[in-house]
Amino acid sequence: MEKVLTIAGSDCSGGAGIQADLKTFAAHGVYGMSVIVSVVAENTSRVIDIQDVAPEMIEKQIDAVFEDIGVDAVKVGMLSQPCCMKAVARKLKEYKPQNVVIDPVMYAKNGCPLMNPSAIDILIHEILPLADVLTPNIPEAERISGIQINSAEDMEQGAKYIYDLGVKNVLVKGGHAVGDALDILYDGKQFYYFRAQRINTKNTHGTGCTYSSAIASNLSLGFDLQEAVRRAKEYVTTAIRHSLAIGKGCGPTHHFYDLYQNGLTKTIIKNN
Ligand SMILES: Nc1ncnc2c1ncn2[C@@H]1O[C@H](COP(=O)(O)OP(=O)(O)O)[C@@H](O)[C@H]1O
Ligand SMILES: Cc1ncc(COP(=O)(O)O)c(N)n1
């Protein structure tokens, strides 16, 4: 079984972060593992508090996974502080895993910050160069590039700017735009468009986590990057289309819709 690791924050409400990543790995039939960088007290409406795991403990968790099991792909999510970023960068440089997907998480869907703004320089200089593919949403691409993004042309320009910072492949996600949900991948030579109809829902908590984990899963399964993104886009679109009205704010996506439809996994036992 392919082995995929997420290095990210824990979302106790289950829709984003480590929890979304592990559900996505399970839905792809790969073996999921997790290194917790921050514990986040959050729900569909707000972030209440963040407690970071000590850098030494982040490093020990990464050692534990690599010395015993090994990984076929890594997804990196929320890294809230420069010290967390440095710990993760040190270990990724040491173990040099293949198929590294980095989601430069800065805010939750409800607008609450998840990255200390002062960490932006470390993010750019220490974390970004480690990515095989970086998946910023529009506000993140704007923050990294300094380019205001209002159109597909602006997304291309932002992707190119970030590529020129030393990122091998850049996927700018259009979830925060209007019109079609268009994502643009730039590999230094060409732009590839991945388009889906925009679904009219507020339940988009964890879409970016889910998408980047699906890309990592597909890369571990041996698909090339374009095919990995194409499949991940289909997966996240289905998860959003059947998203769950759970909680009072932006609800989570449905990570197992297709599996349940095909009757592979679900046994419903209702006791009333
Ligand atoms: N309402 C929506 N309908 C369809 N696709 C969406 C919608 N919102 C986001 N997406 C898609 O979900 C994926 C995650 O993007 P985005 O929401 O921008 O990331 P993030 O969670 O990092 O803000 C992208 O493929 C994006 O196009
Ligand atoms: C622990 C954690 N990590 C990431 C996100 C962002 O989620 P997304 O941008 O996918 O909605 C989140 N809300 N919580």
Structure description:
With 272 residues, the chain is an alpha/beta fold. It has a single domain, classed as 3-Layer(aba) Sandwich (UDP-N-acetylmuramoyl-L-alanine:D-glutamate ligase), CATH 3.40.1190.20. The protein contains nine helices and nine strands. The chain has a six-stranded mixed beta sheet with strand order 3-2-1-4-5-6. The longest helix has 17 residues. The radius of gyration is 17 Å and the shape is globular. The N and C termini lie far apart (39 Å). The mean pLDDT is 95. The protein binds adenosine-5'-diphosphate and (4-amino-2-methylpyrimidin-5-yl)methyl dihydrogen phosphate. Adenosine-5'-diphosphate binds next to strand 8, helix 7 and helix 8.
**Helical segment count:** 9
Computed over alpha carbons, the radius of gyration is 17 Å
Class from secondary-structure proportions: alpha/beta
What is the CATH topology descriptor? UDP-N-acetylmuramoyl-L-alanine:D-glutamate ligase
Can you summarize the main beta sheet? 6 strands, mixed
